[in-house]
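PROTEIN DESIGN WORKSHEET
SECTION A - STRUCTURE
LENGTH: 639
TOKENS:
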């Protein structure tokens, strides 16, 4: 609510809750003469007038007045003054009459003061209506006993509580009685059970039953009243808090402080400290404000800095989202969509079905690469609202599109130039598995060259990564050269393609493998296999390991390198007369295919033995006929 200064000087209407929040320290020990200054007029009045004035007070005020000095104590605690207590009780709406087993002062202290019934110290606990007591922690342990310890003969006459907890017996008992009441009731029972008291014992039992019935009715009504009193107290305290907060906000506003600087978020590191200082159940005086203000200023300054940092972060996230959507729009405009049929058996005709998949063949700068462009970097890093940045992006759309086109051309140009630098001219011919060029007609020639299955590059992703031929689509995907929405690189990232190089040996092998299968111009996407890519195995040697297309190519490259080393070693010993034949050489005269479909070879074996074991058996079987292929002048070694 809005604070109004003119309301601050008005006092609250008196109600029981006001006095309950005040100190309970009794001033009885102070000298009567020390109070005569302001009590002189009241003391000199006739007793009837004094009684009439006091009868208009609230019960809590009468209690404090009775503790003020001996004069008022002697007057108010005398039996003749009971009408004063009764009239003051009528000033509280809904207050029940005093129970017959309690005096009016004791009853009102129990209801309105947070004071231990036994020791008189402060007690935070609520009233236990069943015991007609409010006990502090120490008195609970001292004055309560489990009802199980009360003799059975008097247990029904002793009041017990089911709402109180004694830590020492929390796990053993759940009902407790007052020790002194149990002892008193036991003494009465012993007296009544003496010989000659049979009639009195009957009346004593009937009286107990009647008191129990009346007490239960009164307990229910008193509980209802105390609940209402607690609700009123809570509302009053909330009102005090709200008025105090409003007045503090009003004074801060007059000082030029913005309401946004006030900590309002639970996650703020200043929220708890602010609420501890502000949410106090007391009015805000000038002196209180003078003491409070120096403690609030650092909190407001810190909260303001925290809020501004949070707003900057939110604006940055908003600009990032707008920039991503802006780049996606440009990407969709510049990209050439392509859907290819990925086959289960790759280059072999054994597939029962094909899976249409979108090809990730378009290069596009990531967010980090885009932020390396000075124009985009300036628009993004300027601390503006997302809407302002988007308006500037649209204003410079044409220039940004030109920068992105240049970036794309530079990336593709690097791949094409790497092949040309090794004397390789890739043909812009690209066909699907069935020989149709239709899916690739709309693609630029350079893109067709790079998507060929024999376009092989080398790029070590790490020092420990094996040397494998990499396809163009693999490199742009894992090298961060194809825009991904989830790649949030907020730091500018310059374009570096120095680690990508042409792999001529792998290119020659891939071209030979494709030619041997009659698919020289097929794309890499169609022959990689799906959902499994390890579908190829060598058709020339005993190695029956399932390979991916890249691994199959690297297998042949490795075998060629091994053959070259062996021949070099044999040239050093010409007198040995040993000739080394490379069975992996496409020109080597053999009926064995260069590449096999792994799944097909496994099915054709018709046995539980693995293809590797079958190849080993065939190899050792041929060893027994080795003399048939050994000439007298030379030893032919196939590898």
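SECTION B - SEQUENCE
RESIDUE ASSIGNMENT:
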């Amino acid at each position: 609510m809005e604070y109004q200064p003119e309301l601050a000087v008005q006092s609250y209407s008196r109600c029981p809750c006001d006095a309950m929040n005040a100190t309970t320290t009794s001033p009885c020990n102070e000298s009567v003469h020390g109070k005569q200054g302001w009590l002189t007029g009241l003391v000199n009045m006739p007793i009837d007038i004094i009684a009439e004035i006091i009868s208009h007070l609230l019960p809590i005020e009468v209690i404090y007045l009775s503790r003020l000095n001996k004069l008022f104590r002697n007057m108010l605690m005398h039996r003749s003054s009971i009408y004063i207590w009764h009239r003051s009780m009528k000033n509280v709406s809904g207050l029940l009459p005093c129970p017959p087993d309690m005096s009016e002062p004791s009853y009102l202290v129990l209801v309105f003061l947070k004071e231990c019934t036994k020791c008189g110290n402060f007690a935070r606990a609520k009233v236990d209506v069943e015991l007609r007591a409010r006990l502090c922690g120490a008195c609970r342990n001292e004055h309560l006993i489990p009802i199980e310890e009360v003799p059975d003969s008097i247990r029904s006459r002793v009041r017990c509580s089911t709402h109180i907890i004694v830590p020492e017996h929390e796990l053993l008992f759940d009902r407790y009685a007052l020790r002194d009441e149990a002892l008193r009731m036991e003494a009465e029972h012993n007296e009544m059970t003496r010989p000659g008291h049979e009639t009195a014992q009957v009346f004593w039992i009937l009286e107990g039953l009647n008191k129990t019935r009346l007490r239960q009715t009164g307990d229910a009504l008193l509980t209802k009243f105390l609940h209402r009193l607690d609700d009123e107290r809570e509302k009053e305290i909330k009102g005090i808090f709200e008025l105090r907060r409003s007045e503090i906000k009003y004074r801060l506003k007059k000082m030029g402080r913005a309401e946004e600087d006030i900590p309002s978020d639970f996650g703020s590191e200043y929220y708890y400290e602010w609420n501890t200082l502000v949410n106090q159940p007391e009015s805000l005086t000038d002196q209180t404000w003078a003491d409070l203000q120096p403690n609030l200023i650092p909190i407001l300054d810190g909260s303001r800095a925290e809020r501004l940092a949070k707003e900057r972060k939110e604006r940055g996230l908003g600009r990032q989202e707008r920039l991503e959507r802006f780049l996606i729009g440009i990407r969709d405009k510049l990209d050439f969509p392509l859907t290819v049929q990925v086959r289960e058996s790759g280059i072999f005709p054994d597939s029962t079905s094909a899976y249409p998949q979108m090809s990730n063949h378009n290069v596009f700068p990531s967010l980090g690469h885009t932020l390396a462009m000075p124009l985009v970097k300036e628009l993004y890093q300027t601390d503006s609202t997302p809407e302002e940045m988007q308006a500037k992006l649209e204003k410079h759309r044409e220039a940004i599109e030109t920068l992105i086109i240049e970036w794309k051309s530079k990336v593709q140009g690097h791949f094409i130039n790497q092949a040309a630098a090794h004397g390789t001219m890739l043909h812009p011919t690209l066909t699907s598995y069935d020989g149709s060029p239709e899916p690739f007609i709309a693609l630029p020639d350079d893109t067709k060259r790079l998507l060929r299955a024999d376009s092989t590059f080398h790029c070590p992703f790490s020092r420990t990564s094996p040397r494998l031929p990499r396809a163009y689509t693999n490199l742009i995907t894992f090298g961060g050269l194809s825009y991904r929405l989830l790649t949030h690189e907020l730091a500018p990232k310059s374009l570096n393609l120095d680690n990508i190089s042409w792999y001529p040996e792998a290119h020659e092998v891939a071209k030979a493998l494709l030619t041997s299968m009659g698919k020289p111009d097929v794309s890499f996407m169609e022959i990689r296999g799906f959902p499994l890519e390890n579908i190829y195995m060598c058709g020339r040697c005993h190695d029956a390991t399932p390979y991916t297309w890249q691994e199959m190519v690297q297998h042949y490259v490795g075998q060629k390198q091994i053959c070259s080393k062996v021949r070099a070693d044999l040239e050093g010993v010409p007198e040995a007369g040993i000739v080394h034949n490379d069975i992996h050489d496409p020109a080597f005269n053999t009926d064995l295919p260069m590449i096999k479909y792994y799944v097909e070879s496994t099915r054709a074996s018709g046995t539980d033995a693995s293809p590797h074991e079958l190849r080993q058996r065939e190899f050792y079987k041929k060893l027994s006929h080795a003399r048939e292929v050994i000439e007298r002048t030379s030893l032919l070694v196939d590898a």
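SECTION C - NOTES
Residues 198-254 form the longest helix (57 residues).
The first strand starts at residue 144 and ends at 146.
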